[in-house]
Amino acid sequence: MGRYILQRLTYGLITFFLIATFTFFLMDLLPGSPYQNQEKLTESQIQLLNDRYGLNDPLPVRYATYIGNMLQGDLGVSFRTANRPVTELIMERIGPSAQLGLQALVLGTLVGVLLGVVAAIRHNTVIDYGSMFVSVIGISVPSFVFAALLQYYVGVKLQLLPVAFWDSPAHTILPTISLSLGVTAAIARFVRTEMLEVTGQDYVTLAKAKGLTGNAIVWKHMVRNAMIPAITILGPMTAGLLTGTFVIEKIFAVPGLGELFVTSITLNDYSVIMGTTLFFSGLFIIIILLVDLLYGVVDPRIRLGGNN
Amino acid sequence: MIENKKNYEQFDQDMFTPVEMNEQLGERIAGKSLNFWQDAWMRLKKNKAAIISLSIILILVALALFGPMLSARDAYEQNISQAKLPPKVTGLEWAGFDGMATLGGRDIDFYEQKNVEENFWFGTDYLGRDLWSRIWEGTRISLFIGFVAAIIDTLIGVAYGGVSAYFGGRTDNIMQRIVEILTGVPNLILIILFILIFDPGVFTIILAMAITGWIGMSRLVRGQILKLKNQEFVLAARTLGASSSRLIFKHLIPNTLGAIIITLMFTIPSAIFFEAFLSFIGIGLQPPQASLGTLINDGYKELRTFPFLLIIPSVIIVLLMVSFNLLADGLRDAFDPKMRK
Q: Which coarse location class describes where this protein primarily resides (chain B) (predicted)?
């Protein structure tokens, strides 16, 4: 187990380093200038600014500085937002994104498990077909389409909830629902399949033989075991949530990381793009690693890296 | 005993024919022998959702190819005097295709107001371009991106996974380590960075998606081939002197084809989604190019007054995605009935 963790950590680090290098050289190729009103600047002013941001150094020097600073947690300063350090920008935007992501994850999991369990218990009935239809819709409707329609009908037409921004809990409802749609759909599908899988298992028969009620069998014995493999879809789901936050934060004007990333792309704010890319990549790598390790811990039948 | 005999004799002997002793008769196969594809098609035909989806896809493909000809209007021709007309179809007024839109709390007939005689089935956008033509033009581009991206992913994935699994040993080890490193890369961010550098366009998007898109396919093919390569039919072919390439292309890959097609079918909607996503955040296709993503993006900006500009392309993209997903589900059940739930 220890060896396996070490091996996975090494791969994670290599991936991260590759992404950092790749991002750096890509940024170097990027067209456009990072300065506002470049037309109004004189040649010498641009030179001065380039000197100040270290943009005149040769590529290898800049690369070494970049990696060195990165290792110390310094991601440079934003070219656009009045010299704000990128790390600071990221830190102040983690809050809304994390809250939105967690709320969506919890809501999506709850609704998804419920749909999946109900579909499996009422296998091949109208209820089953209905909940699987909801799930197919959830997988197929792009989150930004769903978000835009929710915003229009609930926010603008019915005026039930705030249309945008991130001030009160009420403001978080529409973005959370939009983001949770994909999670709900994925979990519902998965739980249904796994529930049908465990139906024929010996421990379910035993539970029935012991005279347990239907509810106890379903929730205490079947759902618990059906949920174990669900950990495997946590990885892809995180990726999905990331994708979702980009557009949903843009649509609902949530001051989160996704919005920061999308805005910095349109503004050519190189250092912020690099910083957020690294942050997202690191997060993604850590989550994938945790998911793999967690899987081994939760299900003792799986022995990681062991001799099988 | 005597009773029985009496009973027996009361029947006419002509009513009976003696059964001939024939060993082979019991082994006769009554049904028609079906090959893999016929068998799969037979099962697919029973799946109503999959067949309806297949029909919807075919209809949408046909409209994407010939739709603009039906309205005989160019998808790029601008005409400001006909800008922002709501959809109007004679005979479909009751379904909302009445040319009316709410502006400042009042329902206004835009056709009357702008003195437009002809009907625009899906209305027009802010530059007066015919939305019907643009929608099908956009659908064509979205479908093209979906198909080409899926085919590229499949080619790379099958080759990579196939080679990795077939040769095994050190080759497999190295190739899988590379895959392991690539899996850690959040593909969306990579795609975005890639598109930022090169000019945004159909081929940049396809290439960007291909960078990490093939990994899933290669894993699937590797798994399948590892399972197959030690089976007897491969051993038999090898004993008969089949070369590596013959083994791979004639024996191993055809046997994984079902799984490959299923994955391919799931790749198409996800590629369509990615294009729409990129266009929506403004780094996908650039105007005046139409794709479902750019149309949704344009429509979103006008959402308050002219919701049809968002709703129509949204409906098309949802129809496409649902149909492809359901068809892929159906194909999975048809190719591998064991997996059916």
A: membrane
Question: 162-201 in B: which are within 8 Å (CB) of A?
Answer: 177, 180-190, 192-194, 196-197
Distance CA B3, CA B203 (A): 90
B189–A281 C-beta distance less than 8 A: yes
Nearest chain A CA: its distance from B239 CA (Å)? 30
Q: What residues of chain A lie within 8 A of the CB of B296, using their CB?
A: 144-145, 148
Interface test with A, best of B193, B204, B332 (most A CBs within 10 A): B193
Q: Reduce the DSSP state of residue B242 to 3 states and report it.
A: coil
**B107 bridge partner residues:** B102
Looking at this protein, which amino acid is placed at residue A214?
A: G
Residue A306 binned pLDDT confidence (cut-offs 50, 70, 90): very low
Q: Which residue has the tokens 């024939």?
A: B22
Name the average pLDDT for chain B: 81
* C-beta of residue B184 within 8 angstroms of C-beta of residue A285: yes
Among chain B residues, the shortest Cα distance to A259 is held by: B281
Nearest to A265 among B283, B300, B341 (CB): B283
Share of chain A above pLDDT 90, in %: 7
Q: Is B58 left (phi over 0), alpha (psi -120 to 50) or beta?
A: alpha
Burial of residue A35 (CB within 10 Å: 0-12, 13-18, 19+) is middle
**Distance in Å, alpha carbon of A27 to nearest chain B alpha carbon:** 8
CB atoms within 10 A of CB B147: 17
Report residue A120: phi and psi, to 5°.
-70, -40
* Residues B309/B315/B317/B322 CA torsion (nearest 10 deg): 170
Give pLDDT, residue A203. 85
Query: Which residue's entry shows tokens 């999308």?
Result: A262
Q: Report the pLDDT value the prediction gives residue B93, as an integer from 0 to 100.
A: 67
Q: Does B276 touch chain A (CB under 8 A)?
A: yes
Residue A245, pLDDT score = 85
Question: What is the CATH number assigned to the segment(s) B45-78+132-339?
Answer: 1.10.3720.10
Pairing type for strands B106-109 and B100-103 reads antiparallel
Q: Give the ipTM.
A: 0.80
Contacts of B133 (CB under 8 A, 6+ apart): B67, B68, B71, B73, B74, B75
**Hey, where are the domains in chain B?**
45-78+132-339
Beta strand ranges found along chain A (DSSP E): none
Q: B92 and chain A: CB distance < 8 Å anywhere? A: no
Residues in chain B, overall count? 341
What would the pLDDT profile of B105-163 be if each residue is shown by its tens digit? 677 777 777 777 777 777 777 777 878 888 888 899 999 999 999 999 999 999 999 88
